[in-house]
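Workshop exercise sheet. Pairs work together: one partner reads the sequence aloud, the other fills in the structure field after running the prediction. Swap roles for the next sheet.
Pair: D.N. / O.F.
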Amino acid sequence: METLVTVIHVIAALGVVGLVLLQHGKGADMGAAFGSGASGSLFGVSGSSNFMSRATSIFVAIFFVTSLSLAYLTSHRVQGDSVVQKITTTSPVVDAPKPAEPSSAKDVPQ
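Structure field:
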């Protein structure tokens, strides 16, 4: 369940970022009024603003709901489900061998 919500959360986040980057700023309206080529876009002069703003608000709502649900799922997780506890209980500790010491001064690199 948590994995599914996480996948939807990431998709919503990418959708918000993409849609915000595609939208025109407030200063772009003045350029569109003087024929900067916005009328030849995919949605027309004002068609993209309505579609983009609606799609952005939908993605933001999905992002908000998945954020709250992930916080709820994480807070109600079973305590024994820790990665650190799994590593410490399953892997034994092995002592590393000590390096050999040189027997004379000739063996020491200079």
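Discussion prompt: Helices lie at 2-22, 28-33, 47-75, 83-90. What would you look at next?
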